């Protein structure tokens, strides 16, 4: 399958942003809950999505049925068997969204991107254009 080089570059940049946010959450909250027994410890795999307490990843959606339209959902999970109170989960998710919001201009200068609430989740919306092809 062919992926346009500009789309690949955009996706790589977005993944770097999410890795940084994952690291920041792990630094601050990584010891808050016990790690799921089947989950590798932080830094044990090549991807922060696959180890440590948090899994945070972008997931593109066409936005069908959403008032916010297309964008990248902020996928978020706490990898534990402990009971995470809903208000704590919401606080984790909101902190992740705020970190992403603050770093978008650093990773994507000149693009109009924002983080908005879309139902129970957060979503990155805005200018996903690839420029001239």
Give the biggest sheet: 4 strands, antiparallel
Number of strands: 4
Query: Which consecutive residue ranges, at least 5 long each, have pLDDT under 50?
Result: none
In whole angstroms, how far apart are the ends?
Answer: 18 Å
Shape estimate: globular
**Strand residue percentage:** 15-25%
Number of helices: 2
Give the SSE order as H and E letters. HEEHEE
Mean pLDDT: 92
Give the total of domains: 1
Taking strands numbered 1, 2, ... along the chain, how are they ordered across the largest sheet? 1-2-4-3
Radius of gyration of CA atoms, rounded to a whole number: 15 Å
| Helix and strand composition category | alpha+beta
Helix content: 25-40%
């Amino acid at each position: 399958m062919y992926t346009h080089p500009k789309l690949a570059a955009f996706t790589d940049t977005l993944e770097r942003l999410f890795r940084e946010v994952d690291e920041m959450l792990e630094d601050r909250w990584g010891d808050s809950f016990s790690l799921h027994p089947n989950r590798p410890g932080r830094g044990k795999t090549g991807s922060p999505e696959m180890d440590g307490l948090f899994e945070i990843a972008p997931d593109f959606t066409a936005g069908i049925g959403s008032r916010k339209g297309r964008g990248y959902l902020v996928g978020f999970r706490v990898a534990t068997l402990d009971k995470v109170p809903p208000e704590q989960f919401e606080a984790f998710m909101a902190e992740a969204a705020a970190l992403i919001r603050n770093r978008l201009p650093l990773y994507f200068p000149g693009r109009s991107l924002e983080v908005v609430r879309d139902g129970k989740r957060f979503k990155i919306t805005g200018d996903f254009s690839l420029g001239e092809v």
